[in-house]
Design goal:
The chain is α+β, with helices and mostly antiparallel strands and 179 residues long. It has helices at residues 3-35, 66-83, 106-111, 169-178; strands at 39-46, 51-58, 90-95, 116-125, 128-139, 142-146, 152-156, 160-165.
Length: 179
């Protein structure tokens, strides 16, 4: 076997291991977080030598405080110390999604309708994987956007790899009003 197939197999093995760890962590922390009044927005595990576990959480109304981050961090840390789903050492980071937040759940695409958004797909649609426009919501499991040229675009929610809000004056003003 040549070098490239070996490197590819190593990468696939690492990626599967990371996905399995994230699924285990999500299954482990979601029920207690919900009981505490929080929702998981995103879980990420990055790094090879120095791993970082990032957990974004918020209250159902979209808010999160420093005290809330501390409370979530303490609970998650205690659970992970007992269950140990990550091999080796890692740093735990707990945060709110922030103003230019990732959109990860179906309800995020509804709640943040009307704001400028970037969406990246797993597979290209019409030869394109990345889109930017005004989010119009979620209809029939399709992310609906209006592009700059005024055209309406529908993208399958199941194909969304990454989506996030774009930091604009309108988003800042809306976030300030919500707080």
């Amino acid at each position: 076997m040549g070098l490239w197939p070996a490197v590819f197999l190593w990468f696939v093995t690492i990626a599967r291991s990371t996905l399995n760890a994230i699924e285990k962590i999500e299954d482990l922390i979601t029920p207690p977080l919900n009981d505490m009044g929080y929702e998981v927005v995103r879980i990420r595990l990055t790094g090879n030598d120095k791993k970082v576990l990032q957990i974004m959480a918020e209250k159902p109304d979209g808010t999160m405080t420093i005290e809330g981050c501390t409370e979530v961090s303490q609970m998650v840390s205690a659970l992970l110390d007992v269950e140990d789903p990550i091999q080796g050492a890692y740093d735990l980071e707990v945060s709110s999604p922030g103003i230019d937040r990732p959109l990860t759940r179906r309800k995020d695409f509804q709640r943040w309708s009307g704001f400028e958004t970037k969406v990246e797909l797993e597979e290209a649609v019409d030869g394109q994987r990345r889109y930017r426009g005004t989010l119009l919501g979620l209809e029939n499991d399709m992310v609906v956007m209006q592009l700059d040229d005024g055209s309406r675009l529908e993208l399958p929610f199941s194909e969304v790899r990454k989506a996030k809000l774009i930091l604009t004056d309108e988003l800042i003003a809306a976030s300030t009003r919500r707080d």
